[in-house]
User: What shape does this take?
Amino acid sequence: MIVRMFLNCSLQQGIKADLDSGQVNYLANVLRMKNGDKLAVFDGRSGEYEAITENLSRKSGSLRIGRKIRDFSPSPDIWLLFAPLKKDCTDMVIQKATELGAAKIIPVITKYTNNANIRIERYAAQAIEAAEQCRRLDVPQIEKPQTLDVMLKNFPADRTLFFLNEKGSKQDILETIKNHTGKAALLIGPEGGFSEDEIKKILAYPKVCDIFLGNRILRAETAALAGLVCWQAVNGDWKD
Assistant: This one.
């Protein structure tokens, strides 16, 4: 399998792209690549290009950008809003949400959120790594954490909010998603669920859809991924 790498610069054929220390370490010391070896690179907006290593040593190096391999195509416009979980569970949500095509990931602080150690830089690095591995051409935007009240206050009026509510009405998730196409977001609660007051605030949002994931109580990370799978299957890019 060809190595893929995200570069935070505008790519075009013929340019030289300098590598940062982490990228040099990965290519030279982990993969033991040599000068003249090929890999694929992408920048999240220009598509995917072939690249060749140049001046690669244990501490520095660059890439010469070659021909375009794939034209850019963005992931579908679905956001994931979730309450940060314990470290390993949050890591899994970031990685798998990236694989499942989430365009934006927003940590939402709720009454029962039990992880105060929110590291946006770590989340962003995990999203990049997951995008590299799954052949995605863009990387999800990782937002700074917001309280539930701030998130609801600033939530775009033209975006449907799918609220995965284990205590709510038992609307079929696939039918509900099918009836609400366009810009969307999934809201997932913490391990302890939402408080009654929080549920009332969420349901008061004008474009909220209260949806149901069955009678079994799902872990928060399971609910997040199940919701993304359902949305992708109905309104996402799996049909292509």
Q: What stands out?
A: The CA atoms of residues 66 and 167 lie 54 Å apart. The mean pLDDT is 92. The chain has two domains: 4-70, 78-235. The first strand starts at residue 4 and ends at 6.
